[in-house]
C-alpha cells in the first residue's frame, strides 16, 4: 500500500472513533434537551412574548421577534436575521413555555447581543445553519460523474475527477464557514446561559442541568466542525488515491 492509501485508512479509523465520541455528545445533548422540554416555566406568556421582554431588558429594543409558521419553521425557524435585526422563532418554540424553548430563545438573543456589539462574521452563522448539509452531496455528484464517464466512454475517469472536485468544494465551503462561525456560536451560547441563569426562574438542580445543556450545545458546534474537517481530509485523500491508481 502507498502512503495515501495508508493515510486514508488512518483517517477512516479516526473518523470512526470520533463518530463514537460525537454520538455520545449528541445523545447527551438530546437527553438534556428532552428533559427540559417537559419542564414548564412559571411564566404567564409564551416564549415569543417573553423573548420580547428579555430583549428590552438587555437594551436590544431595536431587535424584533417573529413567530414563523409551521412549514417555515422547518427552514428558517430559530434563527437570527442580522439584516433586519429579527429573531425568528419556530412555531414549536414560540408557543411553548418550557426551559428548552427559553434556552433556544436566549441563544438567539446572544447572537443579537453580539450584533449590537459590532461582532463580525454573523453572516457565516446563518450560512452555516442553512448549508451545513452540503457535504452529503459529495457522493451523489461523484456517482453522476461516473455515469457520465460510462456514457461518453472516452478519457474514462476525467469527468469523475472533475465532479469529485466539485463535490470536494461542497465539503470545503461548509468547513471554512463552520470554522469562522464556531467562535460566534459558542459566544452566543455563553451569553444565552448567562441570561437564563440571571432570571432566577430555575431551581438549583435545574441550574446545574442547564449549564450542562449549554456545554453540550457548545460541544456540538465543535464536533460538527471537526467532522467537517475529517470529511474534507478524507475526500481529498480519496481523490488523490484515485488519481494515483488511474495512472497505474
Keywords:
248 residues, mainly alpha, three-stranded mixed beta sheet, elongated
Q: Explain this structure to me?
A:
- The protein is mainly α.
- Helix 2 packs parallel to helix 5.
- The protein is built from nine helices and three strands, in the order ααβαββαααααα.
- The protein has helices at residues 3-37, 47-57, 73-76, 91-94, 99-116, 122-131, 138-152, 158-197, 204-247; strands spanning 64-67, 79-81, 86-89.
- A three-stranded mixed β-sheet has the order 1-3-2.
- The model has no long low-confidence stretch (mean pLDDT 81).
Lay out the secondary structure.
Blueprint: H1 3-37, H2 47-57, E1 64-67, H3 73-76, E2 79-81, E3 86-89, H4 91-94, H5 99-116, H6 122-131, H7 138-152, H8 158-197, H9 204-247
Parallel strand pairs: 1-3
Antiparallel strand pairs: 2-3
Helix pairs in contact: 1-9, 2-5, 5-8, 6-8, 7-8, 8-9
* Fraction of residues in H or I helices: over 70%
How many DSSP-defined strands? 3
Sketch the topology as an H/E string, one letter per element: HHEHEEHHHHHH
Supply Rg. Answer: 22 Å
Could you name the ranges where pLDDT drops below 50 across 5 or more consecutive residues?
none
Q: Note the main sheet.
A: 3 strands, mixed
Strand sequence of the main sheet, in spatial order?
1-3-2
Query: Which percent band covers the strand fraction?
Result: under 5%
User: How large is the count of helical segments?
Assistant: 9
What overall form do the CA principal axes indicate?
A: elongated
Mean pLDDT: 81
Oligomer description: single chain
Distance between the termini: 13 Å
Main structural class? mainly alpha
